[in-house]
Amino acid sequence: MSVDLGAYFNQFLQNISLGEPQISRMNSAAEAISRFLVQQYGVPSANVFVQGSYANNTVVEPVDGGEYDIDLVAVCVGPNVSSDKALDELETAFRSTALFSDRVTRKQPCVRLEYAHDHVGSFHVDVVPVRWSGQATPPLEAPRREDGWHGTAPAEYTQWCRNQGPLYIRTVMAMKRWRDEQQPVRNAVKSIVLQVLVSQYMPQTGDDASRMAETFKVLHSDLSRLRVPPVVPNPVLPSENLAKRWTAESFNNFVVELKEAVEWATTIQNTTDIMEAADACRELLGNDFPVLSPKDVRLELLDYSHAQTPAQMGWLEAYDSRYQISIKAVVQRGKRGQTRRPLLHDGELLLQGHNLHFKADLVAPNHVDVWWQVANTGGHARSVNELRGEIFKGKNLQGKLIAEDENWESTAYTGSHLIRSLLVRENRVLAVSPWFQVNIYAKGQPFRR
């Protein structure tokens, strides 16, 4: 690695770790459900235990109001009970008590109990009724509606995950956040499949960025040779193919997303610029990955008196409170533009080369024309004669006119720059939005006045 991202990854992993009050909420729900199941089925407390990412120490906070959960296994089913009956009896038991009756949702492999949303996202508990298999491997059997019983070893898988060590845990957490941030990846591969693939391809490298980058590269190198999903054996139950339900279409979509991830990973490994490296990590892992702030690079909003005035357009400023306008912005993410994230006024520091989409929100009792204005500031833009200040109609990135309440821009010059929109009717400016400040850093171009 050309730059050291160790502190950035430590902060990132802290940012995505599920904390309080969610952990206490999960523990409280699991304890209440476990007590109920022990009493309902008359089984030892050891027969009800946690499985999944929470037990495996790989749980991450959900993205954008998504879901977080905890999975419970209850060894409570007799040997001659069908899979459907086992799930139906568990569902009936939960519906019979006021404590859980309003929370029950039927699922194919489990019964789900849904809890109220909080500021992190929605929360649920999945409960799987299992039975002893009568053999050493697999020790248990789990039901699936209309599909019978299937061997499972949840406690053994949890122990296997923990045995992989802290580097594996850190890499899985990062890769799970990549999966959650990139919507096509989320739909293309199951979390457990991704976790096992990571164990097969992850190098034992201490540096988080290098380890993640190499995992992406080797994964793509091997999987891109295939047209159908590989067999992914359960590491504690080799007879089970975890990729059994992985369709060829989803697999190939996963390979496409890996290819883009490799491009960002290559940037991370090769750049000597800490901002470029952190920005590439953010493209992969989302806004929880820290980047430098405008203050860190000493950006300032400088003089923009060069901006064109309405009078220079031949317009009269005649503001009317019935007319209002404001603008919102998003940053287009991904080399194919498949993901966008909101951009706040005077917010994060953006690297050059990002595409920004601005949208005007307006209130107007009569027809008006929407105009846009950009005012660049700072020594970088001045040095290349790009101190823009003109008033213009909205355009796309190719410079062609589009819907007048929209406008696209690309980030290019180090500095704090401004954009606003104006409502004009019959050569009168009826409303102007506040200036929206965009902070930009161009590689190799420190801020200068």
Automatic annotation (TrEMBL):
<dbReference type="Pfam" id="PF18144">
    <property type="entry name" value="SMODS"/>
</dbReference>
<dbReference type="GO" id="GO:0016779">
    <property type="term" value="F:nucleotidyltransferase activity"/>
</dbReference>
<dbReference type="Pfam" id="PF18134">
    <property type="entry name" value="AGS_C"/>
</dbReference>
<dbReference type="InterPro" id="IPR040511">
    <property type="entry name" value="AGS_C"/>
</dbReference>
<protein>
    <recommendedName>
        <fullName>Adenylyl/Guanylyl and SMODS C-terminal sensor domain-containing protein</fullName>
    </recommendedName>
</protein>
<dbReference type="GO" id="GO:0051607">
    <property type="term" value="P:defense response to virus"/>
</dbReference>
<feature type="domain" description="Adenylyl/Guanylyl and SMODS C-terminal sensor">
    <location>
        <begin position="315"/>
        <end position="440"/>
    </location>
</feature>
<dbReference type="InterPro" id="IPR043519">
    <property type="entry name" value="NT_sf"/>
</dbReference>
<dbReference type="InterPro" id="IPR006116">
    <property type="entry name" value="NT_2-5OAS_ClassI-CCAase"/>
</dbReference>
<keyword id="KW-0051">Antiviral defense</keyword>
